[in-house]
Amino acid sequence: MFVSVVAALLPRFELSVAAGGGAALLRGPSALAPMPGTTQGIGEVSAAAEAFGVRPGMPMGEALARCPRLALVPPDPAGVAEAWEEALARLEGIGAAVAPGRPGQVCFDAGELRALHGGGVRGAIAAAARALRRPARFGAAPGAFCALAAASRARVVRPVVVEGGPAQARAWLAPREIGLLALREEVAGLVEPLERLGLSTLGALAALPRDAVTDRFGRPGLRAHDLARGDDAPLRPRRPFEVLRESLELPEAASGPQLEHALGLLVDRLLARRERRGRTLRTVVLAAVLVEGGTWRERVTFREALADPQRMRLALAPRLALLPAPADALRVAVESFGPPVTDQRALLDEAAEMRDARLRDAVRQTRALAGTDAALRVVDVDPRSRVPERRSILAPFEGEEGRGR
User: Fold this and answer.
1) From 3.40.50.1820, 3.30.1490.100, 1.10.10.60, 3.40.50.1980, which CATH number describes the 244-340 domain?
2) I need a surface site. Which of 39, 199, 306, 350 has the fewest CB within 10 A?
3) Which strands form 160-161's sheet, in the order they lie side by side?
4) What is the mean pLDDT of each run of 10 residues along the chain (405 residues)?
């Protein structure tokens, strides 16, 4: 089976979500503003802004110089994450095992969908287009990268399907621009150096000796060379998961202890939800709606799966210092669960009591056989003294007081 991977690209997904919908992008040139407190370049740009030469990643000053009417839209990472999760859930609703990339980019295997929805690959694409309910470009090919490249060349109403196997995929990719490597985050940084070397097409990259590319660019270069040849790794579909989140509206100018108290309330609410079913939490997402507009989002993976609210607050509270601006609302959502809670503290306490009882019994027997001076304990008298003999003294061991020394 050759054509087995379908890719969907939702153009300017992050910008359209932050702006309030695709219709807002038609009002004039616009771009995603950098996150507050950072010096990075602008994000996604609208088609009208591209006409002025504005590109993603461009410094904000240069972008405004090229397009004085450029509207900067506050980024909304929390809203983008929710909208993207909703889109993926819609695709999973038609039976697609999705392997998502960055927001607005997803691949899935069309093998099972062809039999489920009929009409071959194009039938699977039509079913996915109906499920998304928003404009999307579709491509289909033997591999994921080739399918993404095909989707980038497609129109909303006309998907591009690369027929055949790996050889046909390599032939189709050969005349395409080297900039298509930006579709993959792991090799996106190689586009500029490869262009400086005079490589303008994927075919030119594929024709280079494999050893030479690896020697110059390391593992990313090897990966880019494989992609240019049409060799891609199999899809790794994600496991569908249930969404569990809590949110809290904050009073005006909430900060410091108030934010930490609100975080504690959200953690307690989250752990009290019936949907948790006694499971621990492995990864949570801390998000906030900013007063100045836009949102902030931070993903936190615990070192070990937790169900203790105090330990979760200790792990999450320092992240509140990363807020770029005062917040109107605070949110906590579960991204992945751990195993069910196995609280063995009672067993540990019981073992500690048994150990202490044995220790006291051993002390009594030793003193009965060798006298009262056979069991002594160390008592700190002057720990800061320069004379070692004055720092501590030996005293009779008397049950509970001498435990641990």
Assistant:
1) 3.30.1490.100
2) 39
3) 98-100, 105-109, 5-9, 137-141, 160-161
4) 81 90 85 75 89 88 90 89 91 90 91 77 89 90 92 89 88 93 90 91 92 91 92 85 85 75 91 87 90 87 88 90 86 88 58 79 81 79 80 72 41
